[in-house]
Amino acid sequence: MSLGSQLTTAVPALAAGVLALGSAVYTVRLTTRTNKDVEVLKAKLVQEAAIAEARRNLEYQARAKIYAESEPLVLKLAESADYAASRIVGLSDPRRWPALQATVDSSSSWMLSRSSEVIATAHALLEPLALLILLREKTNFVELAFERRLSEIYALARGAYNAHLDDYAIAEIPPAKTYDPVVPGWRQKRVENPATYWWQGITRGRLDPAIEVCINREANRAATVDEFESRYLDLFNRPDDSRHKSLGLFCNPIYNFRPEDRPIFWRILLCQLLIYRRISKRSRVPGEVAMSAALDFDHKDIDQLRRSNAIGDELFESSISAAVDYTNRILVRNE
């Protein structure tokens, strides 16, 4: 066979061999890469499964803690909210107002009355806030993320707390009320024009110590009415105790209360009435069941608020409107 013929035969064979070798190398590399990809995928799946399992365990532990520690507080908060709401509605009855009158000169004391009606009203308004503090101490944001119902109840209770601090903002809700309690000569001015110059909110630095008076730390629960009354009367006689001023400032808008003389505080109370009625309802509805985002008054509460005809139409309507406006704002803010 000639050299040319041999080359003609060898070249295709060599090319075929090279192609076969290349194909084999590619196959090996592809197989290696595929195996690596499979291993990476397996590792990723194992990691994701571990994360999912850890999340399930975390959720289980969170829910177990919620049911063991927080749920009893939610039940108590719902009961307390119902009672506070009923006391707020009751304040529209002018027959209650004389018992709220100050009996002590405001220039010599921050606590202005020993009346049982003042004490009962203060306890009713402080107890839900005390339960909020206790609830906050037993839960965290991770646990709240797993329990929609608890998260909503917590946000609502926090809204009731903040309402006491938002007196200026609540006064500005249309129709805005003239409100200027921090002015020179306020002691005299608030006697002459209490609706404008009587302080109807409180600062956080005074609110928190007042709430503490309504907490029994030894028993880790809200103070009973009797316990609170005993503490109130004790502090009434101890003007040098810082809690005397804090509790007196919390009760400040309750002393001499009439809605016309405390229009901003009346708005705050109606905000809390809306919030407390929703807390009561939400506590009885499973977490997976969504409720209307908007808060509105129960017609039974409106009927009872109107029953005495002691609140003028303009004040009544503007207060109702402001309360709905404020509470729906804070709900949106907390979403």
Which structural class is indicated by helix and strand composition? mainly alpha
Distance between the termini: 91 Å
Beta-strand segment tally: 2
Shape: elongated
Q: Strand sequence of the main sheet, in spatial order?
A: 1-2
What low-confidence regions span 5 or more consecutive residues with pLDDT below 50?
none
Q: Helix count, per DSSP? A: 13
Helical amount: over 70%
Question: What is the alpha-carbon Rg in Å?
Answer: 34 Å
Description:
- This protein is mainly α and 335 residues long.
- The protein has one domain (73-334).
- Helix content is 70%, strand content 1%.
- The protein has 13 helices and 2 strands; from the N terminus they run ααααααααββααααα.
- Strands 1-2 form a two-stranded antiparallel ribbon.
Helix and strand layout, with pairings?
Blueprint: H1 3-90, H2 116-138, H3 141-146, H4 148-165, H5 167-172, H6 186-192, H7 194-197, H8 204-213, E1 215-216, E2 221-222, H9 225-236, H10 242-251, H11 263-283, H12 299-307, H13 313-334
Antiparallel strand pairs: 1-2
